[in-house]
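_Full entry_
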Amino acid sequence: MKKTILILFILIVNSTFSQKNIDSLYVKYFKIKRENIHLHLNKTSFIPGEEAWFKAYIINNKDKKLSNFTKNLHCYIYDNNKKIIAKKLIYTENGVGNGSFKIDSTYTSNTYYIAANTNWMQNFKEDESFFQKITILNKNSYKNTTDNELDIQILPEGGHYIEASKNTFGLLVKNKNNIGLKINKILLKDNKNKVLKEFSTNNFGLAKFNFYYDSKKEYHLEFDLGNGKVIEKKIPKASEMGITLNIENLIPTYFKININTNKNTLKNIMNKKINLFIHNTNYYFEKEISFKNQNTTISILVPKKKIDTGVNIITLFDNANNPIAERLTYIHNKNLKQEINIEKLKTNNDSLEIKLSKKGLDSSKYFMSASILPINTKSYNPTNSIISKFILAPFIKGSIQNPSYYFKNIDRKKLLQLDLLLLTQGWSKYNWKNIFYETPIIKAESENGITLKGTLNVEKIDKNSKVFLFSSDNNLVLSKEIKGNKFKFSRLYLKDSSEVNFIISKKKKQLKTRGYFQQISNNLNLKTKTYNNQFDFINLDNQNLAHNFIETDRIQLDAINLRLKKKPKNNPFFSGVGFSKVFVLDKNYKGTQNLNSFFMERFYSFRRDHDSNLVLIKSNRQVSVYWDDIILDDLEILNNLNLSEFSEIHYKNREIFLYTNYDFKEKRSIKKMGKLTINGGFTEPKIYYQPKYGNKSSTIFENYGAIYWKPNINMSSINTSFKIPLMDQKHFTIYIEGITASGAYIYEEKDIHLKN
């Protein structure tokens, strides 16, 4: 034991870290920008038949502002066996996006997880993906049983405690469901049963105590559970040698760092360098210190204005740059939150208008989402709020009970409770071995849309040949040059299961498109983790929730004969004055006249401009050409097309609008087109719809129903408003989360009460 301690704490010349420069390696490790994701869910407990709605917020960890770095957000639902049940690709713009998952009858278990990450996040050891456990309330739901067996963790501050020295400990007491317990009487006793301390845990099962550890004694804690039962927990024997770290974060302007040792250790480390490193992945503060004059304590006052706000990691290194102690602390930023006013304006029939307004003179744009639930809801228990996910979660290894609590109505008491929480968290998520030896290497690129590529099996492709991509499903008409029989289209917004077509065009004709076409896959690996939190099994009071509470409309249709209706005329918008003409083709038109002849008869002609692009000219002026209302920047695809391609052609002197003949499309695609169906494309956000609940005055609805979801509240001016349905509710709660363009967080809960 003694030999192991000496190896750990006595400064070793041949240490593997001895030649490392901490600050340069640290900067290198965190140089590359990182992303962090939070999903604001409308609920966390769902009834089969509901939709799980969410708003995504992605920030850049460098500046803590919304990130526009990645557009593609991968969202999943997976079960306890880490099997993916559903997945969606969500498009984000300026760091925000929204979507939903349908909770249908296939969700037969009680517990699932919603996850979200990006391809870029695969480059880093630390996992900033979003994970949230959700509960499905079905016929298998039941009330959780209690277990009186306690999980007691005695956690020395900084990671170590030593003999012949004063030590500070954090205490965490939980039940087997991972819920912290309030215990009013805890006694610290020595081996002679002498009471040294009496204290209690807070509502989250957390406490702090300190005492001088005498090497000749043993110590234990006694927990009075209040029911006549007392349990004991022995404090393990302290190390003979070492260094301890203690933080006093009580004063608004500075915090105090106490570095302690004992006399046995002091004689080995006297006048030798110890490096104090305060850091938060973006900024660091470094100070070299040493024990002198037989003093076993070094105390340092650090002005908070010199340290970045938020969570900071305080690490001690010996003179060989081995990390020997670490502690998390928090420095509050008064501008962390941007508060908003929530007011009810007026009731109109069965709806209520809600007004949101800014507090102060902040001119930033606000991005917010709102979930409106019955006031007695039991269905809203997120693991993190937007603040705790972006402020606390990046530094902490495990899960925290109700982390959002620390950022509601922040005052001195809350900050002291938060410091107590951080004392019990031990070493941070960032492993120093990784920082010293495993600098991130970019292997996974950021994703901005979908990439399609192809390899053509077509002869006689010259430098003037192009491949055209068009998709009526996605309103796209694009062209690319062909290089070595290969082409690639990047940054495309393509809907899931939509169809994309390719065709090759040369100067005078179109070639049959043969080859291999594919959608580039990112091979994203979902990092799944299973929470050890309690299962939210629910006592349904014998009410059959899974059946009939949410109505579903199923109508059996009689066999009918479909008769195609004539497609209405298109009405393109022409700029300028004058009359346009329209040429309408019968859907059964089988003529062979091509588009070139059609244009020539009307005094249009194709020419090449100075960049060798094909353009349409009339009276020596270029004509704008639209295909299905999308302007074409390259007309190569039109060269020698048959009129059968089109149902209508509208034209005026300077503009032509072509509309696809969809009755001919299939024949055309079989003849000359390559086709690709998009697998795993973007899912377009649905418009929120209200499930058809049963009795909206019932206990079930009060506890687990949903009133409204507003995913996109973008406020640039001083205020905004929106309407919500009342649904027979006289009282409800609005949960709002969001972020401003300047990086301030929005986190509000407001109870709304209506007059009778």
Summary: The CA atoms of residues 126 and 430 lie 7 Å apart. Residues 581-660 form one domain. The chain has a mean pLDDT of 85.
